[in-house]
Design goal:
With 360 residues, this protein is of the alpha/beta class. The protein has 2 domains: 2-173, 3-Layer(aba) Sandwich (Rossmann fold); 176-355, Dehydroquinate synthase-like, alpha domain. 46% of the residues lie in helices and 20% in strands. It has helices at 25-31, 47-60, 79-91, 106-118, 132-138, 176-193, 195-203, 205-209, 213-233, 248-258, 265-282, 288-300, 312-321, 350-355, and strands at 2-6, 13-18, 37-43, 64-70, 99-104, 125-129, 143-148, 151-158, 163-167, 325-326, 329-336, 340-346. The longest helix has 21 residues, at 213-233. The radius of gyration is 20 Å and the shape is globular. Its EC number is 4.2.3.4. It comes from Geobacter hydrogenophilus. This is 3-dehydroquinate synthase. Catalyzes the conversion of 3-deoxy-D-arabino-heptulosonate 7-phosphate (DAHP) to dehydroquinate (DHQ).
Length: 360
């Protein structure tokens, strides 16, 4: 097992990663001094696979687990589902001394975290991500929230977990499409922050595709270390942390326009990264070779790279509604070659639409 710390003063927490560590969750939570009643928030896909061993471990450590099972899918990341979590917490008698375990992918983690942030004005929660995307990205850093019909993640809070427990064994049951979508976030870290990580992914396509546990543990913990470093410097995304939105601006637009669930989040981010690279190339911050290298890597991971066709005005409207848009314009992250970045603020989106070939 590997460990690292997200250093945020009295809100610091440990990330534990390895293979076969899920049965230790009860002992981990006991070390944190958490209260007796725990709501394990999961979904209809993950619950039948992993709720049993998690609940058994928690019970063996002296906790009283409550199962809260949500429907599976981005389309259920809504206020209605959030209210269902609140109902379960109230019915289960959770108090401020209780806690939540988020057992699932990014949707479960975001919603369970937001429920923890707001129930009784805040109770502790532990992230147990079971998808690659959640393990390398959404489980770390404290972003929680739900979608709104008019935009992704428009409602939420920054609320840090008490711990993150990553067992790469859970990836063995992940459908291939979801697994590969998670690799988009791995590539993201490499493109804008770590050229060595980018090169390592390029070298290890074969073991990545067969889900080699040692390679995955190494790559996942490297991503977590990068994100932890960024979050420590900029917890609430007032500056540096915006770099982690590389590929997300157009990616979120794709998810919104196509309808939540049509594209997996990582697939949309892959598309958005290629478009951001085109814009970086247009502005002289990257070369055609850089863009080609990114595109080739994403394609080798079986990820989409082309924007779906929607009217230019539809893209413009969704982009301007993005939570990163301010009076001074829309924040857009560009790659500087492979391993560097810049953040530009665009008042006029015509450049984006033209470079990315968005018309009609």
């Amino acid at each position: 097992m590997e460990t690292l710390t997200v250093g945020l003063g009295d809100r610091s927490y440990t990330i534990r990663g390895g293979s076969g560590i899920l049965p230790g969750i009860g002992a981990f939570c006991r070390e944190l001094g958490l209260g007796r009643i725990v709501a394990v928030v999961t979904n209809t896909t993950v619950g039948p696979l992993y709720y049993g061993p998690v609940a058994d471990s928690l019970a063996a450590a002296g906790f009283s687990p409550l199962r809260v099972e949500l429907p599976d899918g981005e389309e259920f990341k809504t206020s209605a589902t959030l209210n269902a979590i609140y109902d379960a917490l109230i019915d289960g008698g959770l108090t401020r001394d209780s806690f939540i375990v988020a057992l699932g992918g990014g949707v479960v983690g975001d919603m369970a975290g937001f429920a923890a942030a707001t129930y009784l004005r805040g109770i502790p929660f532990v992230q147990v991500p079971t998808t690659l995307l959640a393990q390398v990205d959404s489980s770390v850093g404290g972003k929680t929230g739900i979608n709104h019909p008019r935009g992704k993640n428009l409602i939420g809070a920054f609320y840090q977990p008490r711990a993150v427990i990553i067992d790469v064994e859970t990836l063995t049951t992940l459908p291939e499409r979801e697994y590969l979508a998670g690799m988009a976030e791995v590539v993201k870290y490499g493109v804008v922050l770590d050229p060595l990580l980018f090169a390592e992914v390029e070298r290890n396509i074969a073991p990545i595709l067969v889900r080699d546990r040692d390679v995955l543990t190494r790559i996942i913990m490297a991503c977590c270390a990068i994100k932890a470093s960024v979050v420590e410097k900029d917890e609430r995304e007032s500056g540096l942390r915006a770099v982690l939105n590389y590929g997300h601006t157009l990616g979120h637009a794709v998810e919104t326009l196509a309808g939540y669930g049509t594209y997996l989040h990582g697939e949309a981010v892959a598309i958005g990264m290629v478009q951001a690279a085109k814009l970086a190339e247009h502005r002289g911050e990257a070369t055609a070779d850089d863009t080609g290298r990114l595109r080739a890597l994403l394609e080798s991971l079986k990820l989409p790279v082309e924007l779906p066709v929607f009217a230019a005005e539809a893209y413009r409207e969704v982009l301007l509604r993005d939570k990163k848009a301010r009076d001074t314009g829309l924040s857009f992250v560009l790659n500087n070659g492979i391993g560097g970045f810049s953040i530009v603020r665009l008042r006029d989106l015509s450049e984006v639409l033209d470079v990315c070939g968005i018309g009609g």
